Amino acid sequence: MAVKGTTWEHNIEAFEFPGVPKTDFYNILSIDGGGMKSMIPAVIIERMEAYAHTYAAAKWTGIPSKDKKIHMSELFQLVAGTSSGSIVAAGVSYGKAGAPTMWGADIVAFFTTHGKDLFERHSLTLGLHIFFWIVFALIGACLGYWAGKRRYDSPR
Q1: Which of 64, 85, 70, 77 is nearest to 27 (CA)?
Q2: DSSP 51-103
């Protein structure tokens, strides 16, 4: 992968990845994290698989489907995620010999069965969290006041 030119139009042509067909565009699926909140993108992906099949069947696109679903690997060239979203991204993009092994429903089932083991709740209560945030905010305000007073009240 070498950079050819000085402008981004020239540089975009320099990116060639083995196994990825060169097209004018790439579809990228980015999945946000957030602990058990990653269940939300997993459910959305499950629904997208079914909707993609319905849409593809109506438009006669020829995208392969299985059980009236189209796998996300057929629609996106790159799947990425942050934090627990990377678990969803790994599940969506994992396959053996080009065949997908995990579908959206499988990822939802994974989070349902293993979610408690992966993401434990904090032992502190909400009241203690609020108390600590207020203390940190007051310390920050005091430090800001002290630094500002020292800066602007000092003679030059």
Answers
A1: 77
A2: HHHHHHHHHT-----BTTB--GGGT-SEEEESTHHHHHHHHHH-EETTEE---
Are 52 and 70 in contact by the 8 Å Cβ rule? The answer is yes
- Separation between Cα atoms, residue 92 and residue 71, nearest integer Å: 8
The whole-number pLDDT of residue 148 equals: 78
Q: Which residue has the tokens 């429903």?
A: 105
Place of tokens 């203390």: 135
Which tens digits make up the pLDDT trace of 22-66? 666 778 888 888 888 888 888 998 898 888 888 888 877 777 777
List residues bridging with 69 in a β-sheet.
Answer: 66
Whether residue 18 contacts residue 42, with contact meaning beta carbons closer than 8 Å, is answered with: no
99-121: per-residue pLDDT in tens? Answer: 677 888 888 898 888 888 887 76
Q: Give the residue extent of every domain in the chain.
A: 8-118, 123-156
